[in-house]
Design goal:
Distance between the termini: 110 Å
Shape: elongated
Strand content: 15-25%
Number of strands: 23
CATH architecture of the largest domain: 3-Layer(aba) Sandwich
Radius of gyration: 37 Å
Helix content: 25-40%
Largest sheet: 7 strands, mixed
CATH topology of the largest domain: Beta-lactamase
Number of helices: 19
Number of domains: 3
């Protein structure tokens, strides 16, 4: 209105002055200049009003709202993951949240950056804190007296940040534990402050980072579950972020009137795993020791409960600490070897092919075969691993001595189509559906090839790939009367509304008749008693199992001198409580699995039988 009145009366005055001058004969150039000035002024005001009210209207509207609207993101609490011990209902968190501090500094307020930095570095145990000795926070130290290395230590980097006197903010440390925070606050150093936030923690050390995964951070600062359980169950564990909106005054305070909207955050749910806490810790420790002992590149371990498919133990070595997931030498260490790395299994595959032939009646344990040490298939010659001819042998001998030629003979007796059908019934070449990220299916595509040599090599575990979990599930099926169970690692899914989804055992397929399963189990006991699996045995028990030493493919052929050693089995045979697969990648101190994977299997089997309090069924002598 003011602008309008000014325009109105200012213009009238101009017109009256102009008329007066004209009437009095005054038509000087000054009147014309004045008239032109006011015209330009009117045009400028109109243009400015147009820009403010039309062109930039949305910006000013947003700016106005920002002065009077209060919005806040409501963060959900991530769910926890729990495990139990056998026979104990106590639950232990293996992935949970803990209040941690983010410590930061205002260097402009810090008078002694060197002493402050050294004191904090000592509390946090930063690299290089002890180079300069113990320096009391009250002592003044000349920066020139601190010798800087070519590459600054963490302590030197901290001192450098604290020395930026014109900088109002510098980070000091993240995920600071309460005891460390208390010690930092006790310094009473000016310019040091903190905020608390929830941090993801994994309390059980060496528990199986590849199985658990970790909570990482994206480029935008948001957190995301990666790998393992954290990756597969991320949406469930993360919950849903909420928001709060209200109208406030210029100071940012809620006025008590006006619109107010709140969408509450929904916390993430919890998981209870099938993993046995004590068995996981001890068995995985034995795996790590075996990898070190035999100088293997890596190793993996899976233990399954045959009657249900519950995964009791799953881990790999080397593993990583989810609390410090950045401290890995290679990103492949994040991958769960038990489900992510398909490989040619070698001779541990033979009992499954033999089971198929027995199931259809093509052979029996006492069926004989004359082994000449080699067999020709297409244009290829297949030989036994020991390069020997064993003469007249039974099918039990074929497994005891792990004869490749015998398995080719068995494949031909039942037919390649039958063998392929049973391999598919064991669900090789397909995902098992375990609720962990990065599960691989392996491949049996070689069986689609027309040449017979592909079926021949598959009969003894070459040319096809499987995962340790698939292999453990197949052996568990033999232990379970021929019934293949779906492997699962989550026992209970607990929602925030109090409902609980209790997972039940799920039968996938009856692969073998119970009679066949019992027969093959007895043959595998013979392998441990009389064959190459002796070092997997446990005194006082009948243990079933089979060794496998397989070549490793690479660059279009098999790598010279590189093998995988595997032992697969179950026990005790009369009432199996576990099926287990041990795999070592490229062990260097021994050549055959009977001297590497087999003894680790026997050591872990002995622990499990004692842990589950299973009484011996035979003499301990």
């Amino acid at each position: 209105m003011t602008s309008y009145r000014w325009l109105r009366y200012g213009t009238m005055g101009l017109v009256m002055a102009y008329q007066h001058n004209v009437e009095n004969g005054i038509g000087s150039w000054r009147i014309k200049a004045l008239r032109f000035f006011f015209l330009l002024l009117i045009v400028g005001i109109c243009v400015r009003l147009f820009v403010l009210q039309v062109v930039e209207a949305s910006w000013y509207q947003t700016w106005s709202q920002s002065q009077h609207e209060i919005s806040e993101e409501l963060v959900a609490t991530r769910g926890s993951v729990y495990v139990q011990d056998y026979g104990d209902e106590t639950e232990y968190a293996v992935a949970t949240n803990e209040s941690r501090a983010v410590v930061f500094a205002n260097p402009s307020l810090i008078k002694e950056p060197i002493n402050t930095g050294l004191a904090i570095a000592k509390i946090l145990q930063l690299a290089g804190w002890d180079i300069y000795g113990v320096v009391a926070p009250v002592v003044v130290v000349d920066p020139a007296e601190i010798p800087l290395s070519v590459e600054l230590t963490e302590t030197e980097k901290l001192i450098t940040r604290l020395s930026k006197i014109d900088d109002p903010y510098e980070p000091v440390a993240r995920d600071v534990k309460q005891a460390q925070l208390d010690a930092i606050l006790a310094l009473q150093a000016p310019g040091i402050d903190y905020v608390l936030r929830d941090a993801r923690t994994y309390p059980e050390k060496n528990f199986g980072g590849q199985m658990l995964g970790f909570l990482g951070q994206k480029d935008d600062g948001s957190r995301l579950g990666m790998y393992g359980l954290e990756g597969f169950w991320n949406d469930f564990l993360a919950g849903r972020t909420g928001s709060s909106y209200a109208q406030g005054d210029a100071a940012g305070n809620w006025t008590g009137v006006g619109a107010r909207k709140v969408m509450p955050a929904v916390d993430g749910g919890d998981l209870l795993l099938t993993i046995d806490r004590t068995a996981q810790y001890i068995a995985c420790k034995m795996l790590r020791e075996g990898v070190d002992q035999f100088q293997a590149d890596s190793g993996s371990l899976v233990i399954v409960e045959p009657s249900t498919g519950r995964i009791l133990v799953m881990c790999g070595a080397p593993d990583f600490d989810p609390n410090n997931y950045g401290n890995v030498s290679n990103a492949v260490d994040y991958n769960n070897q038990a489900i992510f790395e398909p490989y040619e299994p070698g001779s541990v595959f033979k009992p499954l092919v033999m089971a198929a032939a027995i199931d259809i009646g093509a052979v029996s344990p006492n069926t004989t075969f004359n082994d000449s040490g080699e067999v020709k298939v297409d244009d290829y010659t297949i030989r036994n691993s020991d390069l020997k001819a064993h003469g007249l042998v039974t099918m039990t001998d074929v497994l005891d001595e792990s004869l490749n030629t015998g398995m080719v003979w068995v494949m031909k007796k039942m037919g390649r189509d039958t063998m392929e059908n049973y391999i598919k019934k064991f669900h090789f070449g397909a995902l098992g559906g375990v609720e962990l990220a990065t599960e691989a299916a392996g491949t049996i595509a070689a069986l689609d090839e027309q040449a017979e040599v592909y079926a021949a090599t598959a009969s003894f575990g070459q040319g096809i790939t499987v995962t340790p979990l698939q292999l453990a599930s197949a052996y568990a099926a033999v232990a379970n009367g021929g019934a293949l169970m779906k492997p699962y690692v989550v026992e209970e899914v607990r929602y925030t509304d109090g409902t609980v989804d209790k997972r039940k055992a799920e039968k996938v397929e009856q692969v073998l008749t119970p009679a066949t399963a019992t027969t093959v189990g007895a043959m595998l006991v013979s392998v441990v008693e009389n064959g190459h699996g002796k070092r997997a045995g446990v005194k006082g028990y009948y243990i079933a199992g089979k060794t496998g030493t397989a070549q490793v493919a690479g660059n279009g052929s098999y790598l010279a001198g590189v093998t995988n050693g595997t032992f697969a089995g179950f026990g005790p045979v009369n009432d199996p409580k576990f099926a287990m697969v041990i795999k070592l990648n490229n062990p260097k101190t021994v050549e055959w699995a009977e001297s590497s994977a087999a003894p680790i299997f026997g050591q872990i089997a002995g622990f499990l039988l004692d842990y589950y309090d299973i009484a011996p069924t035979r003499s301990l002598e």
